[in-house]
Amino acid sequence: MNDRTFRLDFFIAIAAVLISALTAGTLFYQTRVIGDQFAATIWPYLSVGATYDTDGETIDVTNDGVGPALIRSAQLRVDGRSVRSWNDYVDVLAAEPDMRAIWLRTRAAARARPGARATISMSSIGPSSTLRPGETRTLFKLVFVSNVPAQVLTEHALTLDLCYCSLNGNCWTLRAMPGRINRETQPVSACTASAAIQSYSLGVSIPSPGAR
Fold first, then answer.
1. Measured between alpha carbons, how far is 161 from 167 in angstroms, rounded to an integer?
2. pLDDT in tens, 149-158
3. What pLDDT sits at residue 184?
4. Cα-flanking dihedrals φ and ψ of residue 93, to 5°?
5. What is the DSSP string of 141-164?
6. Is the CB of residue 119 less than 8 Å from the CB of residue 205?
7. Are 94 and 107 in contact (CB under 8 A)?
8. CA torsion 129→134→140→142, rounded to 10°?
């Protein structure tokens, strides 16, 4: 009788342990599903777009996601060379003979028509930047008053490397080459770099050809 009682108690204890483990596993799974569902409601998704036309060029970054994008790092490369600011890109353009000729024509048109001058707009982006859902930020805009051949503006390869995170700490990287088809964002465990693309001037007129 005692042996039967012992065996019954043993099986009851085993069953209780199995039920507890099953319950804990179910709760863990439900918690994970709820966490994934919540994360999906605050995911940002960045994309970089570029427009090249006879008036100049525009480079934008847009948050197409449903949550804010917390920028942790932004880096700019021109022809594979890392640069600190959009001004460095302007210097590269200014060194091109075709571009200098366009600027000379623009300056001549500005003298004939006051106010008709070429302009540059720049925007910094880096670790202190946040893009709200649906927000588009113009990073660089170059506007001329005379026709600009598209091949002149696309002669130098631009690359933007962005790393950004959501509110719950999920992070992604994006390597974008304006004017080209870009790959999807890639998830990463964390943003290891901390860099910014600077703008040292806003809405200024194009400098004289060859000026630094």
1. 20
2. 777 788 888 9
3. 78
4. -65, -40
5. EEE-SS---HHHHTSS-EEEEEEE
6. yes
7. no
8. -160
- Specify the pLDDT at position 133: 95
User: In the chain, what percentage of residues exceed pLDDT 90?
Assistant: 41
Non-local (6+) Cβ contacts of 145 within 8 A are 106, 109, 110, 113, 116, 117, 118
Q: Which two tokens stand for residue 15?
A: 């069953």
- Residue 20's identity, in one-letter code, is S
Q: Comparing C-alpha atoms, which of 69, 50, 55 is closest to residue 176?
A: 50
What is the Cα–Cα distance from 134 to 205, expressed in whole angstroms?
30
> At 34, phi and psi to the nearest 5?
-65, -40
> What are the boundaries of each domain within the chain?
1-40, 46-205
Range in 9-13, 66-70, 88-92 the model is least confident about: 9-13
| Number of CB atoms found within 10 A of residue 41's CB | 10
pTM score: 0.74
**Among candidates 112, 119, 105, which has minimal Cα distance to 206?**
119
